[in-house]
Amino acid sequence: MTTVSPFDRPYQPKDIEQKWYQVWLSKGYFKAETSAKKKPYVIIMPPPNITGSLHQGHALAYYIQDCLVRWKRMLGHNVLWLPGSDHAGIATQNVVEREMTKEGLSRHKLGREKFIERVWQWREHYGHRILEQLHRFGASCDWSRERFTLDEHSSKAVTEAFVSLYQEKLIYRGSFLINWCPRCESALSDLEVEHEEKKGKLWQIQYALADEPGQVVVATTRPETLLGDTAVAVHPEDERYRSLIGKFVILPLLHRKIPILGDVSVDPAFGSGVVKITPAHDFNDFEVGQRHHLEMISIFDEKAHLTREAGPYQGLERFKARKQILQDLQKEGLLMAEQEHLFAQGLCQRCQTLVEPRLSLQWFVKTKPLAAPALRAVQSGEVKIIPEGWGKTYFHWMENIKDWCISRQIWWGHRIPAWYCSEQHTTVSSEAPKRCSVCKSQSLKQDEDVLDTWFSSALWPFSTLGWPRQTKELKLFYPSHVLETGFDILFFWVARMMMMGIHFMKEPPFHEIFLHAMVRDAEGQKMSKTKGNVMDPLDSIETYGSDALRFTHLSLACQGRDVKLSNDRIEGYRNFMNKMWNAARFVLMNFPKETKFSTDFDSSELPVVHQWILTRLQETILETRRSLEEYRLNEACFTVYHFAWSEFCDWYIELSKSHLNAEVLWYTFRELIKLLHPFMPFITEEIWQHLPDKEVESVMMASYPKANSAHVHAMAKKEMEAMMAIVSYIRTVRAEHQVKPSKTIPAVIVVSNKSIFSLLEREKSTMIHLAKLSEFSLSLKAVDTKNYVVGTVGFADVLLPMRELFDVENEKKRLQKELQKIVQELEHIEQKLAQSSFIEKAPKEVVEKEKQRAQELKLRKQQVGNNLEKICSG
RNA sequence: AGGCGGGUAGCUCAGUUGGUAGAGCUUCGCCCUUACAAGGCGGAGGUCGCAGGUUCGAGUCCUGUCCCGCCUACCA
């Protein structure tokens, strides 16, 4: 590889990012090996829906995954990050239908085959766009293994799984009350219904007793469903109504005679204590109906228009029917009261239409037997959920799981592999059967319905690896290491993968589940197209670069907290990229070309500054690795950011200007670039390519830095910290007295501590450089401080000449402030030390530390006091 | 109704074995000091939601309480 772009400034990510992605691709760096001896590390990418383009939530997820994967690759693993996309049944069908509506078309006009063709066209288009976006993210996934939930292999897996579950009696067909979306005209699972609290009305309606005078009053939020009432119910112990149980009432408007039941589900305290029972249109009533063997009358059709059962109201749309029925009740004097009422309404997740409970024939997965082992796997710790808190949510759902309605009355998806003869016998088979399995009839028709999109997703961890065939891949790459995804699909997807994975593979599909937070806008609002606050990741990348966006996402991805994305933040990290860019310029400028790189040079005799940066580098490496291992990516980001900017750039590069050690500078910088790579892959690669002595041709193939204890020098770190404190002090005094940065001043340091004295003596030139000094003199004994401003830093007194340099008033203010701070802290500590309980009970080293601190403060108090006095008198 | 998460500097947030509160952005002052003005140096800014408790010591553990957000739930 050669460097193509010049080292311009500021850093321009655009060309560089696209260029390197293409190089990586062509070199085949992303490919996993099947013959490798290396330990595999596997992440199966959560397949994005093909409904549109990727949003910031995807960006967050894929940046996290890519960071992990690049890190592991550099650690020497055989990495497989397997990409793919999801056909997203209802969601995709809806967007395509919407598009067609604009053209005056509908799926029914087009017909099933043509419509599906059209959706495939859509898929081609958006599938491509999603691919492009993943490239821009820098996603290092193995494109040779890319999969689609509706491709041939996946479809085969779906059929196989369905047939197998059916044979095991874990899939059944039956007529039950399910959630129905009248706009999608399909069944939905419980999860696909969103609940929204809404203000509505509660109406009280009078039902006359059938065989005697009198009446009961029922309360309802849905008066139109009374047309489907087949009973009214009271609590069996309710004194007011006990005598009525077994008698009948006359259903208003339709004048049907229906029984009065006793059922414990009725709450006597609510409303009148009498409930109308509509088994075909209410989940609770359905259960009551089953208990009492009531007739179930469906009054709505698939569009939620009233059926023939509704008598005179047939054909009316459900909301119009409500109006009409209320009017009619009013006319007959049966509407007793109307009051405000808060209730939760169910909306279709995909189109926000009010969902209608509907009695229909559907396919279900029997979930209890599947859920039990999936529950145990997490409880036992075999599978770990991160952050831990989500475990509880997972348990709760798994413990209360209900059967899963998997059939959908749409066209886009996996056709259910069930066939029916004219006798309505069912034949389930992975291939189209020739004869009915019961009556051998040859006239068979396949089920018109398709499967819930999540059914195929549930198989994703192994269907992508070739299942049901026993492939090499399956053996090598199942289970994957971590599933990284959003908590919003914990039930939809994660839980179901757990169930299916354990069932079919006898082993959970992953060891760890890492759930990231929701990406919101700067105001904390959920991004949505209707609100218009969507930040397209591609726009962010255009403006700031992919690395900057990545670093932002990773920095904000604190466990268990929403991510509030703002341009300010991205810009800040864009600046960090530029900072590293310029650091690279400096390093290369100061690097003698013939110097060879080595990692195991002897650092034991080096000056403090070099030992210090080496020490800090090792510490940074350790911390970064630890944070990555614990999925604390934000901490890892902070660690590398702080080291790179505040220590390497601000201090070490500055020092290198006067005290260059090419070997250390070189080593430190190169290790840093490698360390940074998973967090900012493009710029680190570009810089890497400029390095004259690379260990490998691409930084993504380099080995991840490992802390080297031979380069840890604890004493040097302490000494450097002492020096930095003195420099900072001098800088502060200079700044507060408005000494021009270009002006050098003399400084005298009085220090009785011999080791610090010799350190400063050794590092004289360092001090002169950093603090911008004209001269730097040291003394072991106290000197006449008459013409100096004296500050105490650690064990040293720093003397700066006063008269010609300092503003007396400023210094007075500064000292007063400092004194106040010291006094406050000293009081605090002395109070502590005065308590016998503290001395007795606190650990010795803590007490010792406090004592030392008090000692120091006393000294400084005196010193500052003296100075202040001197200034005031002088 | 239950469960979960959060309330820390003007804003956005870090802070995992309890030991003197941190970052970025913002803001103020000085500076184009030859890697970097997308920058450098320095400063200002917090009784860590409230009330108790445990402890020598609590942002950090416990209890209660008030706000905010999310998830789960068939109250007609």
In quaternary terms, these chains amount to single chain
Helix content: 40-55%
Number of helices: 27
Q: How many runs of DSSP E, i.e. beta strands?
A: 29
Q: Any idea what the shape is?
A: elongated
The gyration radius over C-alpha positions equals 37 Å
Strand content: 15-25%
As residue ranges, the low-confidence spans are 1-5
Rounded average pLDDT? 88
Q: How far is the N terminus from the C terminus?
A: 69 Å
Instruction: Please give the largest β-sheet.
Output: 7 strands, mixed
Overall structural class, as computed from helix and strand content, comes to alpha/beta
How would the blueprint of this fold be written?
Blueprint: H1 13-27, E1 40-44, H2 56-74, E2 78-82, E3 84-85, H3 89-102, H4 107-110, H5 112-137, E4 147-148, H6 152-167, E5 171-181, E6 186-188, E7 193-209, E8 215-220, E9 231-234, E10 248-250, E11 257-262, E12 274-277, H7 283-291, H8 318-331, E13 335-348, E14 356-365, H9 368-379, E15 384-386, H10 390-399, E16 404-405, E17 407-408, E18 418-420, E19 426-428, E20 445-446, E21 450-451, H11 453-458, H12 460-463, H13 472-477, E22 480-486, H14 490-505, E23 510-516, E24 519-520, H15 537-544, H16 546-556, E25 563-564, H17 567-589, H18 608-629, H19 633-656, H20 662-676, H21 681-690, H22 714-736, E26 745-751, H23 754-762, H24 764-771, E27 773-779, E28 788-793, E29 796-801, H25 808-834, H26 836-841, H27 844-873
Parallel strand pairs: 1-2, 3-4, 9-11, 15-23, 22-23, 24-25, 26-27
Antiparallel strand pairs: 5-6, 5-14, 7-8, 7-10, 7-13, 9-12, 10-11, 14-16, 17-21, 18-19, 18-20, 26-29, 28-29
The structure holds one RNA strand of 76 nucleotides.
